Amino acid sequence: MNTSEETRLSGQAVALAAVVQSAILVDLLSREGTAPAADMQALSESLFRLEWDQVEEVFGGLPRLRRGLDALADMLEHGAATEHRPALRYTLAMLHLGRTLGRDRARMEAIRNRLEHAAVKQAHFSSRFDEIATSLASVYQDCVSPMRFRIQVSGSAKHLQDPRVAERIRALLLCGLRAAVLWRHLGGRRHRLVMERRPLRAAVARLHALSSAH
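Given the sequence above, the corresponding structure tokens read:
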């Protein structure tokens, strides 16, 4: 594999790991009502990073995506038999919705404008996920929820009916969609997940080793 091909796959693997990490956290929240704050924070900050030299900079570095890299490695190894089946379902749903969303320029522009407004609030008040989640959930509800295809989240009724948990879930779905759009921008395609599974697994293994070395 040449250097440009390796760079392409590495970039796609980073973005895909972010989608998976979003899905893992959504699943945790829906079933248990809680998820690691640092992992949620890493994803929320990615919404406000629009320029980068290396893709991992969007998410604050590879160590902040370790949970997603671990789960992605398992998904690529075991497919539908993965232990992360609910997260795999959310991942595929976000990739599908990200494809549609990325083609809707007006909706993308509306989301960008809303995020710019949220960024001002984040800069002046707080960067904690819980305090920005309300704004991000509102962006998702207003700009994404009206779309024809909707991501159905299942889990504990007690947690799903908790307004705070619901806000976190919507915020994380928005983060996952941002990563899904980025993945497509980097050349990611659903059919290639099958055709390039082996080299993608190798890319994920390299990234995991790098994340552990930091």
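The radius of gyration is 16 Å. Try to locate this feature in the token string yourself.
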